[in-house]
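Q: A small favour: would you put together sequence and structure tokens for a protein?
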Amino acid sequence: MCSLVQKYNVPGPRYTSYPTVPYWDMDNFSGRKWKETLKYSFGESNDKDGISLYIHLPFCESMCTFCGCHKRITKRHEVEDPYIKTVLKEWALYCNLLDAKPKIKELHLGGGTPTFFSSENLLLLIGGLFEHATKAEGSVFSFEGHPNNTTKKHLQTLYNVGFSKVSFGIQDYNEEVQKAIHRMQPFENVKNVTQWAREIGYDSIGHDLIFGLPFQKTKHIEETIAKTKELKPDRLAFYSYAHVPWLKGNGQRGYKDEDLPSAKEKREQYKIGKELLEQAGYHEIGMDHFALKKDKLFSSMKTKNLHRNFMGYTASKTQLMIGLGASSISDSWYSFAQNVKSLEEYHHLVEHNIIPIYRGHILTEEDIIIRKHILNIMCNFKTGWHKKEEWFPRIGEVLPRLKEMEKDGLLKISGTQLEVNDTGKPFVRNICMAFDVLLYEKQPEKRLFSMTI
């Protein structure tokens, strides 16, 4: 395994989209084309499955230095009201384009820190959304909570309007690691919010853990998972820390590269963590995720309904996802569109009745086929190209890269079928990269992605 880590520890995407954002074709993108694909996709999917809605709430009271998300650090809570009003106006702009009331199948509040907002303001936000929409059958609403500021009132208020899933960012319980990443949160706080959510009736409580953090040791992973077993969340994200200090706006320059575990140590942390989680009754779901058998992520994996998009893994698929808020990304299946990141510009554009996108990509027929392969690998650890709709001309470029991985024992190819084996699961990003013809067509001149290990 050590030699495989050395060989495959290269910069690579996490594939929340294909093509990945650095390879979007801006020359062939326009707001008009985005709106056309949006309306077309809405017509195909709204009555059948409904749509997904992601809302980015970017405010945080302090900077967590491990985080690469778009956020605004402030303790001024008067920013809540104008931001919510702008998000609701942006939603109204979208609804005015559509020829029917949207049926919301999935709704997710991300950030930033959604629980930076008061429960009263979150209630105003949800109420405003449904002035223009209805709930689809089997709808699933979820949000991200910070254990230090999520109150029982937050949990109860959101549960009362349909939220049934919540995830809490834990990362690691060791104080030295928490200090390095500027995320001091006692176990007692995590225990409180987890128990409150369970008492209120949330059917899926998730914890996010990270390995490979500065000053983190294997013993810290063991201690964190021991505490996690005590609380027994329904699902877990067990992420590899993405060290991307060159990105603007994160605090990862606050520690040195030598403060991080080596690739070998990081892989050992993953291996030990995975073993401990499996011993505790958790099952590996796609990449970086684990769930108990009772959780819908597990049953969705078994029925081949698992899906992955900019919100991460979801237990059901919707074709259309609209992102609201500064920096949010929307996905019509046929195109991607990202909102401006500056809060000031976001407010200005929406105030002038302009949908605030600034970049995007119109998917080609080849893009869509390759996207399906990457999703198959990410969600089911297998894919195939024997059917006409699965084949694409440049598959001949991909196969030699896959053959090398097959020789290394990461996967098995049988005719026109590929299946990732247990040895290959830690390297699933690398396997997906073999399909990424754009990545090989134009190797980046500067570092774009975190290391795969």
